[in-house]
Specification:
Layout lengths: L1 H17 L4 H30 L7 H22 L3 H22 L6 H14 L9 H5 L4 H14 L3 H27 L1 H13 L1 H5 L7 H17 L7 H15 L3 H17 L8 H28 L14 H6 L10 H7 L6 H14 L3 H17 L4 H5 L6 H32 L3 H19 L7 H25 L4
Main location: membrane
Organism: Paenibacillus hemerocallicola
Pfam families: PMT_2 (PF13231)
Length: about 500
């Protein structure tokens, strides 16, 4: 009886922690949740349709999803009730590491595409040859040099074996799992923290992408570490602004999404931290911290660019020299907003700089002329981005003739994705009814912003990797909400 009372008390405390406490916070979180209902509803509808194409029987998908829900709810309840913090953390790290190490040992993924360009350059850099800095790839995408030198440092310290870089991927994913646990605990409570961390640990694309030398593993860790620092004390810690700026700055050196996460941080600070304090004396100090984040981020980028330019690696700063490229590609109806070989061949005829940018802008404007076609493209892209199967098997098993393995991986990922879309929809419905704290709303704000951005820029399902931790955190509250519903009805 005493244990049950403690459990019920903890559940009530978690519910109070998740729900908004001020009228302004409640109203804004409800508005965001209404948009979240549309997004998660879209995910659920189109991913369910896509998932059905990967199974023979029409009944397979609903039965598997129901079975997954039936298994997830009691497991989440057990996770929240039994085992201390240290026990859970050890179990989590083992659950993250074990399947990823097994996958890396069993599947010898070779670098391809951009990953091959960066790894080849890293091998040269580790040997003291920096001539790659002015080749076609790095002349176009100088911002990829940050990750390239991270790989070069690892090669210099531990040798040139691919296994070292892949094990570092596992290490960063383990760190991300811990950070997500902390974020979800801060946003929704202990049970949700554990549910989010568990879902991150077993999500198939996360596991099999560990054998791929993508910059996403390390950038996601630093971006979400910045978000945790931001929300752990609602940005009142003395050095929080410095840590947030450094984390986003370093994350941007790995993968150039820093401006997006900065915008999310500033929006959170403006709507959920500054707005309630606008009549208080404390708001100037908070505003100064926001400026400090921007300054630290800018200094990190400038310092890295200065070092690489002065070191003779590249004549270009670590910035995007083709600002229209992603938009031009994203508006290509022939590829449904995905990468285009024809576009690549076309623009490479022109020298980089003003002339190539002019050509890309002209093509971009031309593709915007047919408004009906643009509208149809936006809908088709959003359907593909948030409904199609993840491309992780393609990147993890390139040119490997293992169709049965790929089939099973895709089927498992599809059921997991539908399940999370369902839990996310439940979470949005509850938040739209009750409102949520700014900490919870931050992750929804980022997810919605990312979805909006990919309406107009290039899409690949691999790009979900960068923002999917937000969805994982949000869907954990859907699990908790359903647990509460069944508990009241005498179920699990």
């Amino acid at each position: 009886m005493e244990r049950k009372n403690r459990s019920d008390s903890t559940g009530e405390e978690q519910a109070m922690q998740a729900f908004a406490t001020t009228p302004g916070e409640r109203t804004l979180s409800r508005l965001l949740a209404l948009l979240g209902i549309l997004l998660f509803g879209w995910m659920l509808w189109y991913s369910s349709a896509n998932t059905a194409t990967h199974f023979i029987s029409d009944w397979s998908v609903p039965l598997l999803v129901l079975a997954s829900v039936a298994a997830a709810l009691p497991l989440a309840k057990a996770l929240g009730r039994y085992g201390g913090g240290r026990t859970f953390m050890v179990a989590l790290l083992l659950l993250v590491a074990a399947p990823r190490i097994v996958w890396i040992a069993a599947v010898d993924t070779a670098p391809v595409s951009d990953f091959l360009d960066m790894h080849s350059a890293a091998l040269s850099a580790a040997a003291g040859d920096f001539s790659f800095g002015e080749n076609e790839y790095f002349s176009r995408w100088a911002y990829q040099l940050g990750f390239t030198f991270y790989e070069a440092l690892a090669i210099k310290l531990f040798g040139g074996s691919l296994i070292v870089l892949k094990l570092l991927n596992v290490l960063f994913q383990a760190g991300t799992a811990v950070v997500l646990y902390k974020c979800a605990v801060r946003a929704f409570g202990e049970t949700c923290g554990r549910a989010a961390a568990l879902m991150y640990a077993v999500y198939v694309p996360n596991i099999i992408m560990c054998s791929v030398l993508t910059n996403q593993h390390i950038s996601v860790f630093f971006y979400f570490l910045a978000l945790y620092v931001l929300i752990r004390k609602r940005f009142v810690g003395k050095s929080d602004w410095l840590l947030v700026g450094l984390c986003i700055g370093f994350g941007n050196l790995m993968r150039p999404l820093g401006s997006f996460f900065l915008l999310g941080v500033l929006a959170y600070a403006a709507f959920f931290l500054l707005a309630p304090r606008i009549r208080e004396r404390s708001w100037p100090a908070l505003a100064a911290k926001c400026v400090g984040v921007l300054a630290v981020y800018w200094l990190v980028q400038q310092a890295a660019s200065f070092a690489l330019v002065q070191g003779g690696v590249t004549p270009y700063p670590l910035s995007n020299r083709e600002p229209y490229w992603k938009f031009m590609i994203g508006l290509n109806p022939a590829t449904n907003g995905g990468w285009s070989y024809d576009d690549t061949v076309y623009v490479l005829q022109y020298p980089p700089g003003e002339e190539r940018n002019r050509v890309e802008l002209e093509l971009l404007k031309k593709r915007l002329e047919d408004k009906r076609q643009v509208g149809a493209l936006f809908a088709s892209k959003t359907k593909a981005m948030w409904g199609d199967e993840d491309s992780a098997p393609m990147w993890s098993l390139p040119d490997m003739d293992r169709p049965e393995l790929v089939k099973r991986l895709v089927q498992t990922e599809r059921i997991q994705y539908v399940l999370m879309a369902f839990f996310g929809l439940v979470a949005m419905t509850v938040i739209a009814w009750r409102g949520a704290t700014g900490e919870a709303s931050l992750f929804l704000l980022l997810l919605l912003g990312y979805a909006a951005l990919h309406v107009v820029i290039e899409v690949q399902t691999r790009y979900r990797f960068d923002i999917w931790p937000c969805a994982i955190i949000l869907q954990s509250f859907g699990i908790y909400a359903l647990l509460g519903l069944f508990r009241r009805k005498g179920g699990v």
